[in-house]
Design goal:
Creatine Amidinohydrolase, Chain A, domain 1; 6-stranded mixed sheet; globular; 34% helix; 601 residues; Creatine Amidinohydrolase; alpha+beta
Amino acid sequence: MLMQTHEARLAALREELKRRGVDGFIVPISDEHMSEYVGEYAQRLGWLTGFGGSAGFAAVTLNHAAIFVDGRYTVQVREQVDGQLFDYKSVPAESLAGWLPEVCEDGARIAYDPWLHTWAWVEALEKQVNPKGVTLVPLASNPIDAVWADRPEPSAAVATVHDETLAGRSSADKRAAVADWLVKEGHDAVVIPALDSVAWLLNIRGADVSHTPVALSYVIARKDGSAELFIAPEKVTPELTRHLGNAVTIRDRGAFEAALSEYAGKSVALDPDFAVVGIAQALRAGGAKFAFKQDPTILAKAIKNPAEQSGQRDAQARDGAAVSRFLRWLEIEAPKGGVDELAAAARLQAFREEDPGLSDLSFDTISAAAGHAALPHYKVDEDSNIPIPPSSIYLVDSGGQYPGGTTDITRTVWVGPGEPSAEMRDRNTRVLKGHIQLARAVFPQGTCGGQLDVLARQYLWEGGVDYAHGTGHGVGSVLAVHEGPQRIAKPSGGQAGTGQELFAGMILSNEPGYYKPGAFGIRIENLVLVEERAIAGMEGKYLGFETLTFVPLDRKLIARELLTAEEIAWVDAYHAQVRALLEPRLEGEDLAWVERETAPL
């Protein structure tokens, strides 16, 4: 019999914990690869609690339960999770390390799945809770899986070959670079569990995770340039086997853990952000030595080669045409009052899907009207969906996966009739001014994203306001829409990647914003490519940004009087580029709309 209520599911989990002789269990949103988006089979937190956000975790003891989320999900968690079953905890103000000793008796044994947590996470928690009488216990199997009767199977979609003309480098070349790194670092092999790293290294793609074209698999790469790919047999096609060649051995994904014992006496590198406890335990049990070092594919993957850059430009042109057609449709239909957030997101997806090259969206569209736009990570569903009110601001953050690139764009528009308020125009223009300053930035080699963040915030700060998210994240090449290691964010915020040096070829988002709770939100996001810059008399190497995203900005929200002559010139030049790029891809009323919206300020 299937358990329909979350109360029944929680009770079943507690019975399973008693059966295993433990006093509690930690439930993350995670898979064995530490992916940002996880497959349905790994949505254990959602099954147990009903929470549909993309970040958070729960902890269950025999008598207590709590769900931990950050400020992005304060409202959502209360709408989706029963407060009679789970206490709401807000991180970082409240922590698991603080909660466990409060609710556990001395000597409590709290279990965790070693395939869903990193070594550093467990080690840090142990240091905090062990002195307070709580012991963490790794389990051989996940207790939720034992009681989740209708748990979905992992995706059986086949893995596909990513054309080398789009990849720009052969897999053999990439593996040789990893081999050189291993020799230099003194290791025999490196375990690569991150799905996008596997995809990049082997020039393969898949359809196992929503919005990220990856295949569930692991790689062990060795210092002789060979590698082992661990993947379910049903995913392997003759084309994939031919593509991988003799230097890549294909083994069943189920054999991965046992295969780690084959490295007895050898030195193996593990990335601390992606290698879960289960991998480290299996290596140690098998007699291997391991050291935590950043996966050598991560920085190489972030620096896009000329073929990947070209593919990204093509993807942006395709996407810009679809988004522009949507914005024209929205301008006509939304003021009538009959368009809601879900309908708008569906219409935008339909415009994108008219391109036969689109394989997926790159993330769930943030379609946010009125006060919902003030929630930076709002996710519309049947329960939260509202009509887009006439005379309001609408924000849409969306993207697509195309043959050559991954897109991510945010546009904020005024929905008529009438005019936006002076406050709305002021805030939007301050966001735009920061966006322009970051887009125009020139900086010496060695600069990191954390040093550039203030450029995007300065005009908001002058107005006494700010935004609580980062300004820019890395973007993959037909891979993850959020890709490290680079990032533009406040360096003091503990954000990973803000200290990463920026290199020519990296792609980042440029997305400052402003959010007035309950009223409206504004974000302007384009993707940018780090490129070398020549400056007369320059001493050393200098870099800047090439803007990649081309869709009109909403003129109704721009207070021209707040822009300098240089900023007006930037907007006019940007709109001229939009027009030139999209004219061959649009016709009729769509083309006329773009020409009108890109006229000089």
